[in-house]
Amino acid sequence: MHNIVLLTGISGSGKSVALRLLEDTGYICVDNLPVRFLQEFINSTREQGIERVAVAIDVRTVGELDDLPPVIQAMRAGGTPFRVIFLDANDHTLRQRYSESRRRHPLTDRLAQRLGRVPSLQECIDTEREMLAPLREQEHTIDTSDLTPGQLRAWVRDLVQADRAPVVLTFESFAYKRGVPGDADLVFDVRCLPNPHYDQALRPFTGRDAPVAKWLSQFGSVEAMISDIAGYIERWLPLYMQDTRNYLTVALGCTGGKHRSVYVTEELARRFAEHSPLIRHRNQPPPEIP
């Protein structure tokens, strides 16, 4: 099967990390490919029998980004199986990463010519968001704001290995004290549920551990919350599957992102096992990459 991953997103959001992961897992990777060569390149790899291909396209491709969405749609209509991953991060995180790396934003020179002065980093970020908005709205987004490189590598790996269902269903836990993840399509607040954090014996564990799972499962409110969320998803998932989108990310949040949200995420994933959902725990240690 010809597996094609198109990697795009905001500069500074982790595309280099993701591209290296894809290369390490056997993908032939091309960075900064001009849009006009995309169809030709994909056809060439198919003729050569290359099964795994990853292409990175972003604002460094001058003057062609507007052509990318229709090119993707045309190739999909022609039977080319695309997996598009859009990496994003909040402005604070992007500014911090640029400060640490001391790199210039790729739009700096182009904006300077337009404005007649050197633009601020925030102006570059705002312009880039506007340029990439059509892609972000259509494709699978990963908010890397508070992800470690290990987490990002694991999430990209899981995504490209996911079965090609009509909709890639993802359940994701997060901590409200760290902010709502920007890649969420549906957000549910489970902070009203009993909190294992206040039990000294349970505090070191997570919602994936048996002692916490057993403790939470004894409460009718926890079961009712899970059932209500599951019922909502079951009711509306068919309409998402009829839509043009190919992903749905359901985010579950509690205060620290360690106990309640993790447990509810795991339980929902179990109930929707027939859809082969992805499971993400934003505020948990990343798994080891083989």
Automatic annotation (TrEMBL):
<feature type="binding site">
    <location>
        <begin position="58"/>
        <end position="61"/>
    </location>
    <ligand>
        <name>GTP</name>
    </ligand>
</feature>
<dbReference type="InterPro" id="IPR027417">
    <property type="entry name" value="P-loop_NTPase"/>
</dbReference>
<dbReference type="Pfam" id="PF03668">
    <property type="entry name" value="RapZ-like_N"/>
</dbReference>
<keyword id="KW-0067">ATP-binding</keyword>
<feature type="binding site">
    <location>
        <begin position="9"/>
        <end position="16"/>
    </location>
    <ligand>
        <name>ATP</name>
    </ligand>
</feature>
<feature type="domain" description="RapZ C-terminal">
    <location>
        <begin position="169"/>
        <end position="283"/>
    </location>
</feature>
<dbReference type="InterPro" id="IPR053930">
    <property type="entry name" value="RapZ-like_N"/>
</dbReference>
<keyword id="KW-0547">Nucleotide-binding</keyword>
<dbReference type="Pfam" id="PF22740">
    <property type="entry name" value="PapZ_C"/>
</dbReference>
<keyword id="KW-0342">GTP-binding</keyword>
<feature type="domain" description="RapZ-like N-terminal">
    <location>
        <begin position="3"/>
        <end position="163"/>
    </location>
</feature>
<dbReference type="InterPro" id="IPR005337">
    <property type="entry name" value="RapZ-like"/>
</dbReference>
<dbReference type="InterPro" id="IPR053931">
    <property type="entry name" value="RapZ_C"/>
</dbReference>
<protein>
    <submittedName>
        <fullName>RNase adapter RapZ</fullName>
    </submittedName>
</protein>
